[in-house]
Amino acid sequence: MSSAIIQLLVLAGIAVFLILRLRSVLGTRDGFEKPPVAMPDPSSRRGDGRREFEVIEGGPDTDITDHVPDGSDAAKALAAMKMAEPGFVVGEFLHGARGAYEMILMAFEHGNLDDVRPFLSEDVHDSFADVVNLREDQGLSVDAHFVGVRELVLKDATFDRDTGEAELTVRFVGELTSVVRNKAGDIIEGSPNEIKRQRDVWTFARRMGSDDPNWQLVATGE
Question: For the whole model, what pTM was predicted?
Answer without folding.
Answer: 0.72
